[in-house]
Amino acid sequence: MNYHKMDQEDILALKQIVEEKNLLTREQIGEDYCHDELGGISSYPDVLIRAGSTGEISAIMKYSYDKNIPVVVRGSGTGLVGAAVALYGGIMLETTQMNHILELDEENLTVTVEPGVLLMELAQFAQDHDFLYPPDPGEKSATIGGNISTNAGGMRAVKYGVTRDYVRALTVVLPTGEIVELGGKIVKNSSGYSLKDLMIGSEGTLGIITKAVLKLVPLPQKSISLLIPYPSMESAIEAVPEIIRSKSAPTAVEFMERETILFAEEYLGKKFPDTQSDAYLLLTFDGSSLEQVEAEYDKTAKLCLSQGALDVLLVDTDERKDSVWSARSAFLEAIKASTTEMDECDVVVPRNHVAEFIKYTHQLAREIDIRIPSFGHAGDGNLHVYICRDELNEEEWKKKLALAFDKMYERANELGGAVSGEHGIGYAKQAFLEQQVGKTQIRLMQGIKQVFDPKGLLNPGKVVCGASK
């Protein structure tokens, strides 16, 4: 990469754009900024800038474009594929200070936010005003900008859809520093190519999101969850297509194994309502009235019991809700705490193949003698599968990890699946993306990158390579 190596002249020029306190040089940058949540790749930026406005970001990009300096955007750093790591140094733009909720438009059912607003802050704001922002990824401390950049999904996707379905408009700074407004508060739009939708899921490689107009829905008045134990993971997963086929409309359909629940209990220091069974489904139903919700979950409960469920536990008290959902939210951290190192397969398959894929991961774990716990969104086919190093030496770990990934992504492809359901491609999954979609689609993606970012300055080395200078 023929990038400019930053020097003192660049530091002084950038200090003319942002306040000195918001610019940190290499020796001032903390270790957290050299990696993301999983830490599979590590590299420091030369400069960290805590951006405060669209205007500041525009001026920074104009300077970096003129000087050929790479720029990586970072929110909370909760990603799992190395997308927010500055592989080539340069400037890291942190957007967490751009954390204002700018407008609630109750007539158009939209909320306008800056990219640094946390998901949990937006969710609470919407609820306080009797609305729901449906996307519900497990990491509630992630920023909205990061959610949009990866098209995050979460637990409510089975009923409500993913982040893309709730983005009405974006303000974006291009690599040249130009500011563009994409989309609007309008519900329909057939006016040319949807540049807004290209930005969603592009992982900061095409432009920098500085404002978003998001769709809200009325807040459901009632919500109840069911915790359903099964004698085996196979019987639990095999029940999911039957639930979907029954035309009930659960908000979430999560699956979890006993081993993962026990990790979460130990990690959180609190008890789960039941840990006697090998596997569980966690279903949530919401609606406008208790009668509607009860009718939905009663039909599903009877179906599950007829299909081999051992029991149906109603999660209707605050204590039970806290124990169940806090455990579900902690699964990633709990598995991480149970091993010396791990990596994730964020695979997605058609819903009717979820059971087949999970069975395959169990078979694979036995074949190559490595631990592969999992959990995920059974209702939409997005599975979070973790390969754990435990006591393996470095050589064994790398060999078995590579083999596990190759086998799992190959199987997912055979089942009509995709490399990532919601965590993105970043640095870590590029080779698997090319294997899945082929050279023609990669060439098209590289062409899109080239049009938006001809110098290859934005988040270089991520998603698709070959479009950089």
Automatic annotation (TrEMBL):
Known cofactor(s): FAD
InterPro entries linked: FAD-bd_oxidored_4_C, FAD-bd_PCMH, FAD-bd_PCMH-like_sf, FAD-bd_PCMH_sub1, FAD-bd_PCMH_sub2, FAD-linked_Oxase-like_C, FAD-linked_OxidoTrans_Type4, Oxid_FAD_bind_N
UniProt entry keywords in alphabetical sequence: FAD, Flavoprotein, Oxidoreductase
UniProt name for this protein: FAD-binding oxidoreductase
Transmembrane segments: none
Transferase is among the record's keywords: no
Keyword Oxidoreductase: yes
Organism: Diplocloster modestus
Residues covered by the FAD-binding PCMH-type domain: 41-219
Organism lineage string: Bacteria, Bacillati, Bacillota, Clostridia, Lachnospirales
